[in-house]
Amino acid sequence: MFAHNKRLQYTVRVRETNPGLANLMLEQFGGPQGELAAATRYFTQAIAEEDPGRKDMLFDIATEELSHLEVIGNIVLMLNRGAKGRLAEGVDAEGDMYRRITGAGNDSHITQVLYGGGPPLTNSGGVPWTAAYIDTIGEPTADLRSNIAAEARAKIVYERLINCTDDPGVKDALTFLMTREVAHQKSFEKALYSIENNFPPGKLPGDPRFTSVYFNLSQGEPVPAPGPWNDPAHFEVVSDFEQSLAVDGGTGLPSCGMTPEEVTAVSAMAVRTASNPQSDPTTGAELGATPQAAAEMGVAPTTR
Amino acid sequence: MFAHNKRLQYTVRVRETNPGLANLMLEQFGGPQGELAAATRYFTQAIAEEDPGRKDMLFDIATEELSHLEVIGNIVLMLNRGAKGRLAEGVDAEGDMYRRITGAGNDSHITQVLYGGGPPLTNSGGVPWTAAYIDTIGEPTADLRSNIAAEARAKIVYERLINCTDDPGVKDALTFLMTREVAHQKSFEKALYSIENNFPPGKLPGDPRFTSVYFNLSQGEPVPAPGPWNDPAHFEVVSDFEQSLAVDGGTGLPSCGMTPEEVTAVSAMAVRTASNPQSDPTTGAELGATPQAAAEMGVAPTTR
Amino acid sequence: MFAHNKRLQYTVRVRETNPGLANLMLEQFGGPQGELAAATRYFTQAIAEEDPGRKDMLFDIATEELSHLEVIGNIVLMLNRGAKGRLAEGVDAEGDMYRRITGAGNDSHITQVLYGGGPPLTNSGGVPWTAAYIDTIGEPTADLRSNIAAEARAKIVYERLINCTDDPGVKDALTFLMTREVAHQKSFEKALYSIENNFPPGKLPGDPRFTSVYFNLSQGEPVPAPGPWNDPAHFEVVSDFEQSLAVDGGTGLPSCGMTPEEVTAVSAMAVRTASNPQSDPTTGAELGATPQAAAEMGVAPTTR
Amino acid sequence: MFAHNKRLQYTVRVRETNPGLANLMLEQFGGPQGELAAATRYFTQAIAEEDPGRKDMLFDIATEELSHLEVIGNIVLMLNRGAKGRLAEGVDAEGDMYRRITGAGNDSHITQVLYGGGPPLTNSGGVPWTAAYIDTIGEPTADLRSNIAAEARAKIVYERLINCTDDPGVKDALTFLMTREVAHQKSFEKALYSIENNFPPGKLPGDPRFTSVYFNLSQGEPVPAPGPWNDPAHFEVVSDFEQSLAVDGGTGLPSCGMTPEEVTAVSAMAVRTASNPQSDPTTGAELGATPQAAAEMGVAPTTR
Amino acid sequence: MFAHNKRLQYTVRVRETNPGLANLMLEQFGGPQGELAAATRYFTQAIAEEDPGRKDMLFDIATEELSHLEVIGNIVLMLNRGAKGRLAEGVDAEGDMYRRITGAGNDSHITQVLYGGGPPLTNSGGVPWTAAYIDTIGEPTADLRSNIAAEARAKIVYERLINCTDDPGVKDALTFLMTREVAHQKSFEKALYSIENNFPPGKLPGDPRFTSVYFNLSQGEPVPAPGPWNDPAHFEVVSDFEQSLAVDGGTGLPSCGMTPEEVTAVSAMAVRTASNPQSDPTTGAELGATPQAAAEMGVAPTTR
Amino acid sequence: MFAHNKRLQYTVRVRETNPGLANLMLEQFGGPQGELAAATRYFTQAIAEEDPGRKDMLFDIATEELSHLEVIGNIVLMLNRGAKGRLAEGVDAEGDMYRRITGAGNDSHITQVLYGGGPPLTNSGGVPWTAAYIDTIGEPTADLRSNIAAEARAKIVYERLINCTDDPGVKDALTFLMTREVAHQKSFEKALYSIENNFPPGKLPGDPRFTSVYFNLSQGEPVPAPGPWNDPAHFEVVSDFEQSLAVDGGTGLPSCGMTPEEVTAVSAMAVRTASNPQSDPTTGAELGATPQAAAEMGVAPTTR
Asked: What pTM was computed for the model?
């Protein structure tokens, strides 16, 4: 169960109203790498986790991410607060309001008109947050890798946001949030590597004929030097495309068993919809072709 | 530029029509951990990659994932092929067709009625594929971690699909696809660790006051043993909630600068929408309350 | 800032594994009327609220809804826990596993295969949660009405879920959750009606010519008795369709000012894409018509 | 069944081409509070309504909202018409066209390039309309509350749009549309309150132990005065967090019955994926740490 | 402006309650090829159409499609009506209700629990309708082709639904709806071909070097006979992959101009994130490898 | 199976960094008419196609569209490359970076901050690509019409993009891509018309009573001249609305069979939720009305 305290984990100090910057900050409120995604990712994992230590860790970090959602939401709100009041009370001349919310350096119109200046759960482009962002699958050796990656991405997005503002209070709070992603990544790394036999993830081993093959499918100039990812010391590199086809030794063609009724039905469908390869049909495109197009198709121009 | 050969990378042999199983297989065709997600993930990274060796690797693997999309698509198609013919040609009595596509062990109705038995880019529940599944952000030290995690997840979903079928040809092809995820993970791991200074990702260092703090925010019984993710040898553990508040030493309350006009407008909005805390207003709920609810609210039951 | 305790607000006691029922319960975990929607709805409103009392109330209720998300998530997990173990460890014969997750009374395959038996943020049909469910617009006299409606809807969905299970522990926990929606509705009603002048919401008055008009646009039998919503005592009822057209007294046709260049460009587009109303063109449909269709269209059947 | 007349319900007079403003107006065409949402919301409720009078009202209002969709669509079109011609006919120098559709005060590029200047069913940020915006659940005492809230929201968004334009014809038509939302809200209010026993909605009563409890879960400074929503005269206020836990008197911990096979499988999964709490594993992060990060983690910097 | 009559365009007679069939019917209510998509597609085109005759036609057909939406909505409702009453009033024993809405041949649980048995704007799998289904782009020579295709698709989906039911009233109404798609396609065909010079659509001609080239990019067995789509009489067939590369005669490699500052920044990023191709780094996967995986990678098994 | 060559099908030469233009180009990368939609549309059709010649054609064109996705992706990347370096390395003063990514003529902030300057699978407004864009239904006579329409749309969007840039290398590559859509449309036309009896699509004939009826449902001024789409020579035009109702000759009212238990349950629901038409209830709106609204409603203003 959760409890809440009105004090933030980190004090938010915004210098002045800036709805355009508020908009950018939404990336970490309702964006794919943002704090709602982080909080719900760890919270749902925590519920399902069987290992008591990791369950505790996941609740700890989920709770902190919720608290970060509150911090970034307050940054958005403080950057919007003055503008929100103006629009709600209609204090600007109409043209001024329009310019204010659509002008250069400020595409905050959705935030203002639709959401009234509060922090909506969208990314900076106005796309509503979706649980499709969350990639939890319920296997710790995969989910912990996903969490490590998620923290790495969030760290980078904060870094870019820091590069976009010169408001010292905003920079300061963003730096705290960015730093915490680093700390969380460290915890998730420890949790992953404290599981023995975490690679390959899951239970079934791979087919040993194919676990160390590297198919060199992109060819042509420029040809780079090999790297550790396709070093023949570790990988069997297959560069001949023919040898990449039907590597099981079969025909490479799909087949399926069907009942006689199914064969009949499929054949009937095939016949009904067959194209006649010998035909040279007049087409709709030819009926309406421009003179140039008609000439290119070798048909007479349409006359009407 | 791409070229295509009609032979598959792995031969698909399906024993018999099974639209319900076809549906499950969609998870890896148009699902979040599936092959379209993998192929487009690496393809878009390949385009943007500055390192020539990694660019080559990303194109190699993207091309293979496209080829896997073709393999899994053919598994779906072969499992559906007989059923597709029956529906298209209307060869079943109506009740039979209805039972066939909605019956026990088979919720393939969307696949059949809407998509005609071809492989649609949806997951097994019919949710259309979305690029929101792809978490590429354009920083290699984050994206390679995302790729490692994506391969781990895909490996697990294949493992579960293998556990759901006893068709030997399907199992065989799925095992090949699962194995290749293992091989790809190995390549991405090599690529990540061949970047020096890959942790923390990006360029800005964290604030050293907070990089090794662990906030113990989930408390109460049961209390698990500490693990390496919050071991005091590596982390400064903060268990006192008061010390987790406003860790910057400030008030923990948000503030923003506003112009006098903004202050006026915000105040006007606040006054216009203020709740009177001393009021005890009659509410809409009270107007229409059931006798029990009215009693609980201490109001007279409505009479009309 | 948030804190978490490992004890739930209400004890969850599940009698036996039932993944199909777990699936239904997702409606209130990641569905449109579910607890994530409730928690994020009130949390984002709380951040933006200017009235200190209502801000406090919104945080109180948001925090409780988060705690309810945890309760319903644990119901889902407990109903799935046994099944999740079986799939992860592959302990069933393959056909059994397939039947287990797709059989009658159980369409839990997405939950099992994709999410590994953990509680995903989807509705019971597998549709990922989206912030499009949240209708907050940042004006308290509208948002409180939205909250009242949201609580009413959530109450009903819980009622239906209660009607679907005979597991006493599940019924008991659902009844608690349902009851709390009633309590929350009561608080939101009090908050709305303690704002004076809350109708019409916002600041601009309506145009008095149209605030009490009722356009009777659906006609024909059966004609019901008038009700209080179109009682002539309160509404001016307009039943003549002609009088519903262009009620401003104008032409009812749209017009716009354009520069000469714009007029020229629009005319050029119109000419370029004009249909010749005198023409009787041969169409693509006629080229490929079946004999019956050709006869209906009065064209000669295609011969090839 | 529907019929259509080419005259609008309200005459649309647009002063001059303004694609940026056209874009804002999309909020009420294809946005969440817009007229398509309103029309389809009432139309689908009308179909399912059992009460003949309310069914009639819902069709009346749905039909009017469709007519409003036409009005707002014509506002969008008229504001775009000149620009649409220019782009379609390519009459501008290229750089001019680019500046025209991406310049200050005008982010109409999606509307122009993708939709050709016609009114698309998106919000002002280009997000496609989704039926996820509609919250109908098929219980009149809930749906009428949802309708009341929807009208309140739509009224506010129109108010904001009116504040953003100084084109008198646009203001005039928007004021009409805004006013009608007020009238509709009045009808829906009458319809709700003419249902006796409409609170709590539905049929099941709440558990009386919890219908009037208020959990004071957000604490800390600033502490506002109580309001009518948590006035002890009406609510039992629980401020002690410990008393908010496991309010049923149980352990607050989830439990489930499992078969012996399930217990075995869950245990096997737990063992396979257990983290060793005594371990201090080397992690991937440590392998690639920067010197600073390595120092913070207490590991030797990587040498290669 | 629209008006409504309570009589349907076609009488709906449903034999008996069948929520599973109701669910299938949703495909044409809120599915991608359904009547809402059709109605809104033509309605939005009608608003933007400059040709008065086509504008009239588009409104005629849009209005009819709205009326069809009402017909199919009533089919859904009538099939659900009995079940809706049972759930709302809780008249079944709990287990019965669960079996009723999740049992074989009936996956109507979302419709019942979430939508209360009314017709929701989703497809038969529960996916909410989205305006992403609508492909209008505001150029009549493209949009009319899109409309022709849309009618063809809708005709087929109705055909499949007809094949799934033996309720004569449902079959009868579906046949009417299917037939009207055929009639609409005929009108759209006439409208397209009455535009002279409708191919290629738009204004810019293609580059004549490439308008009739056919790139034979899929090769390998089986090699089908050529068809009219790549008949050398009409197309220049390029089968040599090398000749498909860089057909402009350039290098086939992308290039861009950059300022010196940009060059410097890009170089810095490249250096910072470069992979060392000579390295053979220890990876995270190696740290946690199973003995088999460690052997395959040529590393020592982890000991702890 | 696919293979890849590092040379593009068409050489991309970008003159200078222009992230705003890069953003526009996304329309054809991850937009609804873009190359991913094209490639996946034809690829999935190819898998399911039974006609060997058309299957080959679909793979040929799918493979080319993938190659076009690569071309347009490289245009995006080259236009962004300089900006991407600046943001990643933080080389600008903060205010400069903010202005750079949000300034006039450049709303590329999502691309830069979230995606790091690489090409994301979104449209130009940042909306993630969705498979809902793909309208394949598995019947060739419908799918080929859909493909023809899709090529027509893509041609137009390229035409508009060409009109928006004066960078000669970008124009040149876009012209190639546009031209290829024309060539593909020609192939799809040939494929469609080489199927005999392709209209009406599918197998069931329409009901001859309704295949040539034209319902004139939009009336009122202005009345355009009839066109070939409603020419009485080909269509039976029904202009009397009464004759458009219940064209089957029935009542036009829906009906359904129900069991006695169902009748009882539906009646109970109807009674429970009935509105009393004789009532004149006080409503929530009246409780909180402004003085003006109270006067309009004929109720006393609220006093508190």
From this structure: 0.96
